[in-house]
Amino acid sequence: MIFRFKRTLKLGVKSLWMHRLRSTLTMLGIIFGVSSVVSMLAIGEGASQDAQEKISQLGSRNIIIKTVPPPEDKSSIGQQQTLKEYGLTYDDAERFRGAIPNVRVLVPNRRISDQALYRNSRVSTEVIGTVPWYREILSLSLKYGRFITTTDTHYKQAVCVIDDKVRNELFLFDDPLGQNIKVGGDYYSVVGVVSAQKDIAASELQGGKNNPEKERGANTGKIYIPLTTARTRFGETSIQMGAGGATLERVELQEIIVQSRTIDQVLSTRRSVQSILSRFHKKNDYEIIVPLELMQRAKDVQRIFTIVLGSIAAISLLVGGIGIMNIMMATVSERTREIGIRRALGARQRDIVMQFLSETLILTLCGGILGMAVGSLIPILVTYFGQMRTVITPGSLVLAFGISAAVGLAFGIYPAYRAAHMDPIESLRHE
């Protein structure tokens, strides 16, 4: 049995080697198909992991409540408003802390867009007035120095922590620690440097719908100062320029981050937060973001994305399989006399089937191996030149190779069956 299999395999390789150019051209369809499957799955997996990491930076146990401008009141259209008051308040933070037992920690934040100056350098930044445990809640990586402390908060110290973006703009060649930067008319001493938040985390922490600061705040550097300092030095009233002129707006807090004790309590905590806000905020001037829900949504989107990409790549494999079947059918016609001679010398139908099926499988498996090599190279080039994350998983390689083998088997059966069932006498007469 083993000897017969080896002989059949040897005959298949010899036959393909005699028609090297045709065999190579036939394999191209499988090579392109398998490489498409591997590379597309790698791109999809990379995008998925990248999104998961960015969303997870927001914290799987966190609930982020953000201030958003309320919808325009139809009764007030055309009336001049001297002061618009809306958004989250310090009282809201106290209500969450006192009324929701599942709350582990709470982070109230103020966010102000302003410019930072150091010597002759100037950069647009977002100033975040926050509390010492902000870094832990959002997993900010401290590069050197320190973060805001309870002492800074208690004494309203003029200290700040900057991120990489601000450091690179203002202190490209200088050590920022101990230097004073000017923000909003006041000077702050730099006490630490943290890694920049990833874009999705930054953008999600801005207001959502109807928030004019969202796009700008998502891409600017961050400066962190004590919340008490921000409240004292920046106040709570800002001037917003619009088509109808200037409008005064008063917002106490731009966001409150609530962290539940466990992941299982996130959704119940969210419902409690929603219940409290609905009682005290009739203007619909807030938005609730649950990173856990975002992560689940990202997984669902990725699943659909992978199916679509895999289907597109499978079509190219299908086309390659059809090409192989056409070539094998032509090969059967060319070798009709050979088939007749082999049958006359005692070869069984099973032997003929095995010979042609082995040739098809050799073509598809060799094409699959080369396709995996090319498909593994494409994501590397995409990552290098396109600055896009790609991840090649063992599962995608096994899947691609398995599909190529299945294609070879499926599209090789009919030509092999047709060759085996030729009439030996008619085959010998074939010229």
TrEMBL record:
Boundaries of every MacB-like periplasmic core domain copy: 23-238
Assigned GO CC terms: plasma membrane
Membrane-spanning ranges: 21-43, 304-331, 352-385, 397-417
Localization per Swiss-Prot or TrEMBL: Cell membrane
InterPro entries tied to this protein: ABC3_permease_C (IPR003838), MacB_PCD (IPR025857), Macrolide_Exporter_MacB (IPR050250)
Domain of life: Bacteria
Membrane topology summary: Multi-pass membrane protein
Enzyme Commission designation: 3.6.3.-
Keyword annotations of the record: ATP-binding, Cell membrane, Hydrolase, Membrane, Nucleotide-binding, Transmembrane, Transmembrane helix
All copies of domain ABC3 transporter permease C-terminal, residue ranges: 311-424
Subcellular location, principal: membrane
Keyword Signal assigned: no
GO function term, MF aspect, one: ATP binding
Family to which this protein belongs: Belongs to the ABC-4 integral membrane protein family.
Protein name: Macrolide export ATP-binding/permease protein MacB
Organism whose genome encodes this protein: Anaerohalosphaera lusitana
